[in-house]
Amino acid sequence: MTDDLRLPPPRELPPEVRLRLREAVTTGVTARRHAPASMLAAAAAVVLLVASAVVAVQLARPQSDEAAGGGTDLASQTLDRCWAAVGAAGKTSKVPDRKKWDKASLSVQGDDVVVAFTADGKPTFCETTSTMVTMSDPNAKPAYATGTRTALLLYTSTGLAAGVADPAWDRVELDRPDGLGISVSDVTKASHQFTSFTLTDPATTQLCARLQDNGTTRSNNGKASINWSCAKLPSPPAPLFSIVDRPGDRSSRAGRALGECLAGFAQPPADQDAYQPGVLLEDGPYQVVLGRTAAHTVACTTEPDSSSPSGRSHRLYQDTFIGQSIPVRRLSVPGLGKDGAKVPFVGIVPPSGASMIADFAFGKPVDITVADGTFGIWLPAGAKPVYPNGDSWVKTLDGKGAALFNGSVPMK
């Protein structure tokens, strides 16, 4: 199953969406007017298409079974891991035996792997990341969108939305109620399951679904017609379980720093073991270490504190992203030390990111440390933004030297 770039058919956008897009595009044009020639020559990392009242935004595309590399083997290995997690979670009495699991499809986005399968004929989903396993409840009763037989069975903090589609649908379009399309997903023929990496937050996002078929939306009676109504999807049942089965690295210097920082809180995060370490910044007693899961990014800071029994204090910043740049994003972390003079310039890059440079108005680029999908550097003295809006220019490359991002991010 894939979320290929099948653009939804054109339709009128609500006034507030038009305004939001106009502001975003205007901001982008202003920034590009001040961009260096090399930046203008580079391919854009994100494309926003706005033509009259037509808009389509494609933020993520999971790989197909074949593109994932050894789809059958990966699916089987993932299901084996899921079955082991069923036992670790103490849920074997709630799930049919592994021998009764039949794979329907596989979807992959970075280290986020999702297998849609049937467990003794019951539609089920299992999502794995580098550290966690989450499984839908095969015995849960679906809550269908009004007028359809389409329902969500799993919607996780990673943005994964998975469920069953109306038997008359061969593709599902997921939208926001404000008219912005999110994805178009294929539906498995036998079990009517679909999977989509929506990059949305289930805590703040309402999804709706409609049939989408090669640009033609059909009503449920099968007759070809244009029907812009989008059925709001009720919240899915609670997952059967979500556990950390492979704790993040705590043996490396960054891993130890992350573990110690997270453990330093009176109430450590419940999912602290799920975070893999990223960039570590150190300057004497001052420290910033990044951690990532498929769902969240955190920056954990440490600095001297004479009022604390340990002589140190910690602060945690989760998903404090600023700006609109994708896929490189800046985390807003206040400066450490006297008057906040030690300013961390930190954030995330694609998992394949290997190197990064930035323009801080010094006349030459500055190298930025990249590690495990994160970037970081203490802002050097005299660093200034290169754009009037306070942004700086950055360029991120993969291990083969291909550009993953060439654009601007907020400097402070």
Give the structure's gist in a few sentences:
By secondary structure, the protein is mostly beta strands. The chain contains 4 helices and 26 strands.
How does the major sheet shape up? 8 strands, antiparallel
Strand order in the largest sheet:
19-20-21-24-23-22-25-26
Q: What's the SSE pattern?
A: HHEEHEEEEEEEEEEEEHEEEEEEEEEEEE
> What overall form do the CA principal axes indicate?
globular
Helix and strand composition category: mainly beta
Q: What's the β-strand tally?
A: 26
* Cα end-to-end separation: 41 Å
* Estimated radius of gyration: 23 Å
Multimeric status of the protein:
single chain
Spans with pLDDT under 50 lasting ≥5 residues? Answer: 1-69, 215-219
Helical segment tally? 4
Residue share in helix: 10-25%
Q: Averaged pLDDT, please?
A: 84
What share of the residues does DSSP label as strand, in percent? Answer: 25-35%
Can you characterise this structure?
The chain has 412 residues and is mainly beta. Helix content is 13%, strand content 35%. It has an eight-stranded antiparallel β-sheet, with no helix packed on it. It has a five-stranded antiparallel β-sheet with strand order 3-4-5-6-14, covered by helices on one side. Residues 1-69 and 215-219 have low confidence and may be disordered.
Which features does this protein show?
26 strands; 8-stranded antiparallel β-sheet; 13% helix; 4 helices; 5-stranded antiparallel β-sheet; mainly beta; 412 residues
